[in-house]
Design a protein that fits this description.
20% of the residues lie in helices and 28% in strands. It is of the alpha+beta class. Strands 1-2-3-4 form a 4-stranded antiparallel beta sheet, covered by helices on one side. InterPro entries: NTF2-like_dom_sf, SEC_C_motif, YchJ-like_M. Residues 28-128 form the YchJ-like middle NTF2-like domain.
Amino acid sequence: MSPCPCGSGLEFDACCGPVLAGERPAATAEALMRARYTAFTRVDMDFLGDSLHPAHRHDHDEAATRRWAEESDWMGLEVVATKDGGEGDQQGEVEFIASYRDRGGMVRRHHERSRFQREGGRWYFVDGRLVPPKTAVHSGPRVGRNDPCPCGSGRKYKKCCGR
């Protein structure tokens, strides 16, 4: 038995496996999002296409999706937040971060808020919006150009680390 790539802590056969195989539908929006992540790790293009909301399939670029799935080394999934999307809801939102290594070896984080909708008792992915990174604000004192360099070299900042 192998752990599910979605990071739930469950075995694949008890988590996303039956959803990907079509043996049972995802019970919640989060469960579908986790199954879609697992489908990316397995390059399961049929599931990715079938889990798209029918009204949004017209602009699905399967070739680009396949390329991204195949050329990425999927490293993990973190569910940041969920809003609605439970078994009794008709719509929901899941915010997540999917980490992966691209072809060039760069580790990347795909941070997205995805919308899901339930129709006919089945959850579908509607669309997603990227979450912009937060701007880091330096909270320490600013080093002036002519101040001693904080690295301890004894030189002015502008002649040392400020170059």
